[in-house]
């Protein structure tokens, strides 16, 4: 590949991983449009000591992870690479999902790629499945009888393998942080979110203040959304789903407050977008929180971990915390609050 030959010790090595990843997934600081395949060999099964300094005829390092980070990235270790010996990434440009438009009556998909021969588009749910050939134009329309259903899987495939996919756990756009997906539905910004009520990806807040109880409730939800799953907080809507709005004179103050308490209370700071939507003359703030595959910790000095379950935000269990860090947690978690 590109003039290089990479040889793994053996296909089933315990320190080797192979993974195919759909398009529009994060790749370092970027989000790539194309699906990709990644191969990794870590240093965990090598004879290198993991618990001591590394010294030799070059620079000395605190540990193996620090040496890899300095050599490959020219930076301090971020403790996410776990000392990879090597990592090979190959983008797959045969065919990918370029643009997906979801309306109340259809899904319209634009497919791009270098080779669309024999490629099909499949839309599946727990109770139905529809398949269409992509063709040379790369445009496919699938009619919907009752709108996009829960747990819908949009799959680009050949007869033997998948090329790209999107999974819609919820038909509500509050969970989607994907530039390739467009919801063209009446009131998709606010009315659709309100119609679905509070749930896995949507939370209503009448207001946000510096009062401890009110602030903590808001921050717990933001931390839960940021840890893996994404979600939208609607500020200016009460628990009954009624729009109470935010006074126009308070908009800037509220936006600054939200940015301040998130920055001061959650690590790492989540990625989010703030938008204002007007409804019958009332202003509602939409805080769209992007989830990432890592924990976002509330109150770092006394770490708290939260997850979203249905319409509730709750503390993560010990096992969930351990799995999130790639560990089996069976003992004492010390100062971690669970």
List the quaternary state of the chains: single chain
Beta content: 25-35%
Separate helix tally: 5
Number of domains: 3
Mass-distribution shape: flat
Q: Detail the poorly predicted runs.
A: 45-51, 327-338
Name the structural class.
alpha+beta
Q: Overall mean pLDDT score?
A: 81
> Quick one: CATH class of the largest domain?
Alpha Beta
Helix content: 10-25%
CATH topology descriptor of the largest domain: Methyltransferase, Cobalt-precorrin-4 Transmethylase, Domain 2
Widest β-sheet, arrangement of strands: 10-7-6-13
Q: Tell me the span between the first and last alpha carbons.
A: 47 Å
CATH architecture of the largest domain: 2-Layer Sandwich
The count of β-strands is 21
> What's the helix-strand series?
EEEEHEEEEEEEEEHEHEHEEEEEEH
Largest beta-sheet details: 4 strands, mixed
> For the CA atoms, what is the radius of gyration?
23 Å
In CATH, what is the homologous superfamily of the largest domain?
Schlafen, AAA domain
Can you walk through the features of this model?
The protein has helices at 64-73, 191-196, 212-226, 251-265, 318-324, and strands at residues 16-21, 25-27, 30-32, 36-42, 84-91, 96-102, 106-112, 120-125, 128-133, 139-143, 152-157, 162-168, 181-183, 202-205, 231-235, 266-267, 271-279, 282-290, 297-298, 306-309, 312-315. The protein has 338 residues and is of the alpha+beta class. The protein folds into 3 domains: 16-91, no CATH class; 96-183, Sandwich (Immunoglobulin-like), CATH 2.60.40; 191-324, 2-Layer Sandwich (Methyltransferase, Cobalt-precorrin-4 Transmethylase, Domain 2). Strand 6 (96-102) and strand 7 form a beta hairpin. The protein starts with 15 loop residues before the first strand and ends in a 14-residue tail after the last helix. Residues 45-51 and 327-338 have low confidence and may be disordered.
């Amino acid at each position: 590949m590109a003039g290089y030959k990479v040889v793994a010790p053996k296909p089933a090595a315990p320190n080797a991983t192979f993974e195919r990843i759909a398009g529009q997934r994060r790749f370092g600081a970027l989000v790539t449009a194309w699906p990709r395949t990644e191969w990794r060999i870590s240093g965990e099964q090598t004879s290198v000591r993991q618990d001591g300094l590394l010294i030799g005829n070059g620079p000395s390092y605190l540990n193996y992870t620090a040496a890899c980070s300095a050599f490959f990235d020219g930076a301090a270790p971020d403790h996410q690479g776990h000392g990879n010996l090597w990592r090979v990434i190959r983008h797959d440009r045969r065919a990918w999902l370029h643009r997906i438009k979801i309306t109340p009556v259809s899904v319209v998909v634009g497919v791009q790629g270098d080779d669309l021969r024999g490629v099909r588009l499949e839309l599946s749910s727990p109770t139905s499945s529809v398949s269409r050939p992509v063709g040379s134009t790369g445009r496919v329309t699938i009619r919907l009888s009752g709108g996009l259903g829960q747990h819908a899987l949009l799959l680009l495939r050949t007869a033997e393998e998948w090329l790209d996919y999107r999974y819609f756990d919820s038909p509500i756009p509050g969970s989607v942080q994907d530039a390739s997906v467009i919801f063209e539905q009446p009131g998709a910004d606010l009315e659709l979110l309100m119609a679905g009520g509070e749930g896995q990806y949507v939370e209503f807040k009448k207001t946000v203040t510096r009062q401890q109880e009110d602030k903590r409730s808001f921050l717990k939800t933001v931390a839960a959304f940021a840890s893996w799953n994404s979600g939208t907080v609607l500020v200016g809507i009460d628990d009954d789903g009624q729009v109470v709005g935010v006074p126009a004179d308070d908009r800037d103050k509220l936006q600054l407050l939200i940015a301040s308490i998130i920055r001061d209370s959650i690590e790492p700071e989540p990625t989010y977008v703030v938008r204002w939507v007007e409804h019958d003359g009332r202003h509602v703030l939409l805080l769209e929180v992007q989830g990432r595959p890592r924990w976002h910790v509330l109150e770092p000095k006394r770490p708290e971990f939260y997850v979203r379950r249905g319409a509730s935000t709750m503390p993560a269990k010990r096992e969930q915390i351990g799995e999130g860090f790639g560990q089996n947690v069976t003992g004492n978690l010390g100062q971690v609050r669970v």
